[in-house]
């Protein structure tokens, strides 16, 4: 797995436009390989301070990094592999559910029952090498039955044997700009101009068929772009190569490429860290060229280059965004961005129809 950290010293995240965030969803908090038994780490997710750790039995947890007593970060205290203890007054909590199990200052005459007190704790599961955390809507109360939650997102898989890779990069912009950059179909020959991907001379008109799906939209199954060098390699599997791309709220782009029994699938997410910053994660699995040595290393190398090109563009865009310019979206290339904003408002307000009333063809040059 190749892990990339953004070098954006010249960008002050505080100068970037903020946006409204979608709660009541699963988000990838961090790579779970960084969680060792009996250890914890801290991070921000949707502006929420989290204490994430792994218990002695291997289970992972995510707590709000604030003691409900006086508000000191729980990370200032101790974790013994079973319970989290606050540094200020020694209150001790079971981390998966957040239940208080001890208040050392209580005496025999006190009537307070510690087990009726809960620190903030969130459902946390390990899927595709990530610790996914479910952050509920504000005021929705403590989650006591995780079976009612939606399934944790994961990369589609079509065989028992496959290889995988992961890429990660921080972006100095809000999640909206990260997402519409992710789904933008027209920037390829410019941002990703390279001998191994595309050139300015490769631009040609394209027509893609889109259809509505719950909380998103789908670019229907089609032949991969012939002006992208990596896709050309799939030609060795014949002419039956197809790709399908789904976008699903709040932040997920699924891509599946099928070539008979061979396949490649990825899940790319743009996760809000704060209302004005975000992070892109790419999780990919494949059995194409499964037995060819060094393919995972090569795929990670070129994948990292690809993500880094997007990352550098977002850093440059952030310099302009701090002046709060008006945003222009055009048809047809920016239609997916328009759909995203409409879907997001529909989700936040609970009002409105799906922006796609039915299947539609979009045309652009790329």
UniProtKB/TrEMBL annotation:
Annotated InterPro entries: Cholesterol_7-desaturase, Rieske_2Fe-2S, Rieske_2Fe-2S_sf
Keyword Oxidoreductase recorded: yes
Keyword Oxidoreductase: yes
Highest taxon listed in the record's lineage: Bacteria
Rieske domain span: 26-133
Coiled coil: none
GO molecular-function terms, A-Z: 2 iron, 2 sulfur cluster binding; dioxygenase activity; metal ion binding
One Pfam family recorded for the sequence: Rieske
Name used for this protein in its record: Phenylpropionate dioxygenase, large terminal subunit
Organism of origin: Terriglobus roseus
């Amino acid at each position: 797995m190749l892990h990339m950290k953004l070098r954006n010293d010249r960008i002050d995240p505080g100068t970037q436009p903020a946006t409204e965030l979608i709660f009541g969803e699963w988000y990838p908090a961090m790579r779970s390989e960084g969680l060792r038994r009996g250890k914890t780490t801290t991070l921000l997710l949707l502006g929420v301070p989290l204490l994430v750790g792994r218990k002695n039995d291997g289970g992972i947890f995510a707590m709000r990094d604030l003691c409900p007593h006086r508000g000191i970060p729980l990370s200032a205290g101790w974790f013994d592999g079973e319970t989290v203890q606050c540094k200020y007054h020694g209150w001790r909590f079971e981390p998966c559910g957040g239940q208080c199990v001890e208040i050392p200052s209580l005496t025999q005459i006190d009537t307070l029952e510690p087990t009726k007190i809960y620190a903030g704790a969130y459902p946390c599961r390990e899927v595709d090498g990530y610790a996914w955390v479910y952050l509920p809507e504000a005021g929705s109360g403590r989650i006591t039955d995780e079976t009612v939650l939606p399934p944790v997102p994961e990369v589609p898989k079509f065989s028992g044997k496959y290889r995988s890779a992961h890429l990660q990069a921080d972006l100095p912009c809000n999640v909206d700009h990260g997402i519409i950059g992710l789904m933008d179909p027209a920037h390829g020959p410019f941002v990703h101009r390279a001998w191994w991907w595309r050139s300015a001379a490769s631009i040609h008109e394209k027509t893609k068929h889109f259809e509505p799906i719950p909380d998103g939209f789908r670019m229907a199954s089609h032949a991969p772009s012939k002006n992208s060098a990596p896709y050309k390699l799939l030609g060795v599997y014949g002419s039956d190569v197809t790709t399908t791309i789904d976008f699903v709220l709040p932040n997920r782009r699924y891509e599946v490429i099928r070539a008979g029994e061979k396949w490649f699938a990825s899940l790319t997410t743009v996760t809000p860290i704060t209302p004005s910053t975000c992070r892109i994660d790419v999780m990919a699995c494949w059995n194409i060229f499964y037995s060819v040595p060094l393919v995972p290393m090569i795929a990670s190398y070129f994948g990292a280059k690809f993500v880094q090109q997007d990352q550098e563009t977002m850093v440059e865009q952030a310099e302009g965004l701090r002046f709060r310019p008006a945003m222009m979206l055009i048809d047809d290339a920016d239609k997916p961005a328009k759909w995203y904003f409409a879907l997001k408002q529909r989700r936040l307000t609970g009002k409105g129809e799906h922006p796609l009333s039915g299947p539609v063809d979009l045309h652009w040059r790329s």
